[in-house]
Structures are given as C-alpha cells and as structure tokens.
Specification:
Structural class of chain B: mainly alpha
Radius of gyration of chain B: 30 Å
Strand content of chain B: under 5%
CATH class of chain A: Mainly Beta
Low-confidence stretches of chain A: 193-197
Distance between the termini of chain B: 49 Å
Number of helices of chain A: 5
Strand order of the largest sheet of chain A: 1-8-3-6
Shape of chain A: globular
Number of strands of chain B: 0
Number of strands of chain A: 8
Largest sheet of chain B: none
Structural class of chain A: alpha+beta
CATH topology of chain A: Jelly Rolls
Low-confidence stretches of chain B: 201-209, 217-233
Oligomer: heterodimer
Chain lengths: 197, 455
C-alpha cells in the first residue's frame, strides 16, 4: 500500500471517528428531547442543559440509591432497567440494619426502562429517598442535580422555568392518578379526597 | 472428565473472587503510587503552591460576575472575552493608581530621612532625654532596656547608605524642590548623621564621608566624582544579573496567577464535573453534594472577606482624608490596611502602624474636621483606626460574613503564625482561608458520610 493511500485512509478514519463522536452527542440530545421533562426545550436549550448532565453506568444489581438517603439528583434511564423497591425492613420497623441481607425480599414498586426517570422529587428539596433504586441490568443513566438546576435559575432562567413547569405537570399527573386509584379502591363515602388543583 | 471442564480454581481468569482480589491489589498499588507521586510533586513544586492558590482565590472572587454577567445583544461567544477585558482593565487601572501613589526612589529616601528624624525627635521628647548625659525621665528608666534596642534597630533600617545619601542630596538640589523645604530636610539629614556618629552603629569613616557630602549646599550642582567606596563595575554587573535572574524566576512562577485565574474563571464546571465523575457509583451523589457545598462555602467566605476588607479599607481612607492626609496617600494606606485586615489580630495593628508612621512625617495637613490642628493628627489616626475596627466588628463582619465560618481564636493565632513560618507574609494572609477550606471540607465530608449511612 502506498504512502498516499495510507494517509488517505488515516484521514478517513479520523473523520469517521469525529462524526461518530458528534453523532453520539446528537443522539444524547435527541434522547433528552424525548424526555417528558425537557420536551418544551429547544435543541439549543437542550444543548445548554446537557452541559450540566452527568452520565453514569451501573452494573446489574447495583444500587443507584437507597431508601432514606438524602436525595440530590434526578436519574433518567438511557439504557437498561431499574427496579424501584421498598426493602422489607422499611415496611416493618423502619430499620434496614435490623434485617439480615439473606432475609431481604424487597417489594417491587415499579420496573422502569429506557426513557423513564425517577428521583424527580429530589429536584425540589432534600427530603430522604422514599424508596430504593436498583439496576436490574447493566444500566446507563443521565443525572441532573438539584443544585445545578438551581444555578440554572440565575444563569439561564428560561430553561429552568420550562423544566420546573414540566416537573409540576408530571407531579400533578401523578397526584391525579393516585387520587383516582384511592377513589376506586376505597368505599366511596370513606375515601379521603386528595385534590390536585 | 476432560481437563477443560474442571480447570484448577487458581487458573480461572474469570473467577469473580479472583478478579476482585486482583482489582483490589491493582487499585491499592496504583493508589499508593499516586499518593507518593502526589506528595513528591507537592514537595518538589511547593514554590507553585502560592501562585496557584492566589489565582484560584481571585477566580473565586470574580466568579459571580461571570455567572451573572448579561449584556443585551452580546453574543454568548463574546461574553468571556468581554468579561476578561473588563476585569483586566479594572485591575490595571487600580494597579496604575496604586503605582502613582507610591513615591519614587528619591521620594522614598526623603520619607526615610524625615521618618528617622521624627521618630528620634518624638522619642527624645517623650522620654525627655538630656543630650549631654543621655538620661531621661522616669518612663525612660523604666522602658530604656526594651525600647532603646528597638529604636536603634529602626535607625539602622532607616539610615541611608552612601549611594542613597548621594541620591538624596541630588534630590534636594532639584530645581522643583522648595528651597525652604530643602534646607529643612538637609537639617534633618545632618541631625540623623550626627546621631549616627554618636551611636556605636555608625563607623567613623562613613560618617566622615557623609559629612563631606552633607556639607555641600543643596543648591550647588551635584557631585561629579563617585564615592570612594562605590562598588566595582563587575560587582555591579553581577548584582544586576542576579537581580535579573531573581526577577525572571519570580515572574516565571507568578505568571501562573493570571493563567490559573483565567482558566478557573472561564471554566463552566468542567473541572468539577471531571473530579466528580471519578467517584464510584456508591459515593456519586455524596461526592457531588460535598464538592458543591464546599465550593459554595469557600466562595461565600472569600467574597465576604474581600468585601469586609474593602469596607474597612474604605472607612480608613475616608477617616485619613478627614484628618488631613492627602487623598492619594490616604488611598494607598487604606488599601494596605484593608488588605492587612484579612490577617486576624495583626491586621488592625498593621493599619495603625502604617497610619501612625505617616502621621509622624505628615506636613502642611489640611483637616476637614474643624478645630483640628496639625498636632492632633496622631489622635486623628488612632481614632480613625479605632472607629474602622469598631465598624468592622459591629457591622461589617456580622452583616457580610454572618459568622458562616467560625474559628476558635487559638486556631486563628496558631494558623497565622504557622502560615508566616511556612510562607512568610503571603502565608500569613492565606493561612485563615486555607484553614477555613479544610474545616468546611472535613465537616461536610463527615456529615455527608453519616447522612448517606456510610459511617
């Protein structure tokens, strides 16, 4: 192979690699745009947002966070599967240390796949996590911290406002759903009514 | 059974326990090597520590300006250059103002002669020392053993060497100098010489030569022959080259300050993100929370201290102007005393010494306070420093710092002394911020570990 063709091949590969990097970045932006919380943002705003988003990879059965830990971030599943669960101890006396690991059989609350997000209440305050999150498979997550979102209020208030509005909508939807569940399950005259207004 | 179905346990490369063991030893070895290398580098490059800290502290001070800077119509790509130009223009302007307030070499020599004369005059007046017998009043007999060596060493510092004496006399012959003032300063100079002759520190030959110099009228043209003791040309060249090498060395180290400042100022969190990304999954949220909390606490403390020192400096400048000190000199003294105020306990004392030193040599003052005469300037300076300290303790510190980071006074004293032993004046200045950083770091770390149930 001549020197010229070797050179040409090197340039081609370098450009291909560059394109690949760029396309992965574009994929990430497209993925973020598909998330309900960020649907109102433009691509330019999504790009600004992606500067404060972390990427983490969790192995199978690895805990992402545990119940009662202080919440600091929202997690978005990019690939893999996450189980939201309550350890048995939290259903009894509230002390996870009191139960032997072998006796633990967590109650699964939800099984989340790519595109789902969890830990969103941590974007509002530092209340402890109400459940644990564990990776069922090897899982890749995007992470947005509350403090970064707070700083966004000063530096890019429009983006922060749009995210908070979407977050309020999501929480409102959940409240409505919970309300209707309670209404269906409990006898009509005894049901405590939660208002989502 | 075939051999590949039951390989010996120690030969299975994918055995999880074996892999974990290997990973443990690998991480341990790498960790220890990194720790050793890090400690060696810190020791070997310790000269770079101060410029790095200084640049980082400056970046901390200006970061809110960068974060909240918003000019309508300015593209985002131009924001950073505009901010940098604004900051550097401001710093250069301030530097030029300070530079113009500092007297040139002959001005400094004039100040030294005046200060030496006034210090001796005031001391002899206060102690009522008889020039013949050398004995003074009761106070003199009480403090003589302690104060006399201090005054002597101050005299040694302020005594001009031969080259300086020549420069000073040339300065007196300057056409711009008022003849009356020149006569007065010459008399100060001669009195200082006579005093040096009396004291054991002045050598006879030196005094003889300086007398010869001083005997010339200030209006005469300056001496054409160099003094007999002037250094040989080779020695001068050597001295100059060593001074040049020293300047280059200092410049090469301190050139880091603007570099660190610019990079840290314009960094959009990528340094922090890379650092946090290194944390294992288990400590990810904890690491972020810790770094963020420490970052906020340090930023608030540094900006608070800067604001507090600026307010003290401003109060002192206003006070000095009111008691009659020229605006330029008052501004310079205010900046020095304000900066020194960052050093606990010692700072106010430095401010007082600077103010009183100038009050000693101040002439033709024009106080803004009615019925205040030239003789009251000492009192005025002391009152100004006292009021500034009162304001600092009662208003500036509680309002600006709000007791966010409280240190025990003993820690402060030991820290300031330790800082001065390690890094001199700069160490003294940076000791408390460094201790605050360590305190916040440790406190947040331990609290975070408890909150995340890791301890």
């Amino acid at each position: 192979m001549s020197d010229k063709s070797l050179q040409a091949r090197a340039i081609l590969w370098a450009n291909l690699m560059r394109l690949r990097t760029k396309s992965s970045e574009v994929e990430k932006l497209k993925f973020l745009k598909s998330i309900a919380l960020f649907q109102d943002l433009s691509f330019r705003q999504i790009r600004d947002l992606s500067n404060i988003i972390y990427e983490r990879t969790y192995n199978k059965n690895e805990h992402i966070f545990e119940i009662q830990q202080p919440g600091a971030a929202l997690f978005i599943i990019q690939s893999g599967q996450v189980s939201i669960e309550l350890p048995p101890s939290s259903l009894t006396d509230g002390t996870p240390e009191a139960v032997e690991p072998s006796q633990r059989a967590a109650a699964q609350l939800a099984l989340l796949g790519p595109g789902a997000f969890f830990g969103d209440l941590a974007l509002l305050d530092q209340t402890p996590r109400s459940a644990s999150a564990r990776a069922n498979l090897k899982t890749q997550c995007l992470v947005l911290f509350r403090e970064d979102l707070n700083k966004l209020i000063d530096s890019k208030p429009k983006i922060a406002c749009l995210i908070y509005r979407s977050l309020a909508t999501v929480i409102g939807e959940r409240l409505k759903a919970t309300n209707s569940l309670i209404s269906e399950d409990a006898p009509k005259n005894e049901a405590p009514r939660l208002t989502a207004a | 059974m075939r051999p590949q179905d039951s390989p010996p346990p120690n030969r299975r490369p994918t055995d999880p326990i074996e892999r974990k063991r290997r990973a443990f030893w690998l991480y341990l070895t790498l960790g220890l090597a990194a720790l050793g290398l890090g400690l060696f580098l810190i020791w070997a490059l310790r000269a770079l520590i101060l410029p790095l800290i200084f640049g980082a502290l400056l970046a901390y001070l200006f970061r809110p300006l960068v974060n909240n800077f918003n000019m309508p119509g300015l593209p985002e790509s131009l924001r950073a250059p505009v901010i940098l130009v604004l900051i550097f223009s401001g710093l250069i302007f301030l530097g030029l103002q300070i530079r113009s307030s500092i007297p040139d070499e002959s001005g400094q020599l004039e100040l030294m002669v005046r200060l030496q004369f006034k210090v001796n005059e005031k001391y002899e007046h206060l102690m009522q020392i008889d020039p013949e017998t050398g004995k003074g009043n009761f106070l003199h007999s009480l403090v003589e053993r302690d104060l006399t060596p201090l005054i002597e060493s101050l005299n040694q510092i302020l005594t001009l060497d031969l080259q300086q004496q020549k420069t000073f006399l040339e300065h007196l012959q300057n056409a711009e100098m008022d003849p009356k003032r020149a006569e007065l300063y010459l008399s100060f100079f001669q009195t200082n010489l006579e005093r040096a002759q009396k004291s054991s520190t002045g050598s006879i030959a030196r005094v003889a030569l300086t007398r010869e110099l001083a005997s010339q009228s200030p209006t005469e043209p300056h001496l054409s022959t160099p003094p007999a003791t002037s250094p040989a040309p080779s020695a001068v060249t050597e001295e100059k080259s060593s001074a040049l090498a020293w300047i280059l060395e200092v410049l090469s180290i301190w050139v880091l300050v603007p570099l660190v400042f610019v990079f840290m100022l314009l960094d959009r969190g990528s340094i922090m993100r890379r650092f946090i990304s290194l944390a294992p999954n288990r400590y990810f949220e904890l690491t972020y929370s810790m770094v963020d909390e420490v970052d906020n606490a340090i930023g608030q403390y540094l900006r608070g201290t800067f604001l507090q020192c600026s307010l003290v400096g401003l109060s002192l400048t206003l006070g000095f102007v009111m008691v009659g000190i020229q605006l330029k000199v008052a501004l310079l003294m205010g900046i020095i005393a304000g900066m020194a105020n960052a050093i606990p306990f010692l700072g106010p004392f430095i401010g007082l010494v600077v103010g009183l030193s100038y009050a000693l040599v101040a002439e033709n003052i024009s106080p803004l306070i009615p019925s205040m005469g030239e003789e009251h300037i000492f009192l005025g300076v002391m009152a100004t420093v006292a009021i500034a300290q009162l304001l600092d303790n009662a208003v500036f510190q509680p309002v600006v710092l709000g007791g966010a980071v409280n240190l025990h006074p003993l820690v402060v004293i030991v820290g300031v002394i330790g800082g001065s032993i390690l890094f001199g004046f700069a160490g003294m200045l940076l000791a408390i911020p460094s201790i605050v950083i360590l305190k916040v770091l440790l406190g947040t770390f331990i609290r975070g570990l408890a909150e995340y149930r890791l301890i």
